[in-house]
Amino acid sequence: MDSLLRTSNASPDFKAAVELIFAGRQHERVAVENYVPLVKIRRLLTQLIAQEPTLEIQRVSVSGSSGCSDFIGTLQVHTTNGPHMIDFVWDCRWRAQSEGYVDYFGFPDQLRAAQEFDWRCFQRWERRAS
To answer: What DSSP assignment string belongs to 7-74?
Structure first.
């Protein structure tokens, strides 16, 4: 995450908030509407910084629901140039199926996909038209 943050145009305050989130603390610049496990918020923030390095991010708001193998929702990204809405689906089951990973019982090996691909299990990352 450190190298991603260094190359990001996000504000210093937002970068500091992300570092606090990764340290297990909350911050007002990362607002989460519903309960979502911290690991999924970390994955979402990593994807945001990796996919949108040019955005001058000030703060974000997350609205979504988290299941066993997925995290589906909308990310509102507040920047110096106005808000951006991103619809997302993080799904380790989808990634496991895409990679052909199966567990002992023949089911998609979600755990392996989540461990190996971590934040790179986003099936959908789509900016809404302004």
So the answer is: H----HHHHHHHHHHHTT---TTEEESS---HHHHHHHHHHHHHH-TTS-EEEEEEEEEE-SSEEEEE
Residue 82's φ and ψ, nearest 5 degrees, are 110, 175
Compute mean pLDDT per 10 residues along the chain, 130 residues long, and list them: 93 96 93 93 97 96 94 96 96 97 96 96 91
Which residue is it, tokens 């997925």?
A: 70
Q: For the chain, what are the domain ranges?
A: 2-89
Q: Across the strands, what pairs with 75?
A: 62, 86
Q: Reduce the DSSP state of residue 101 to 3 states and report it.
A: coil
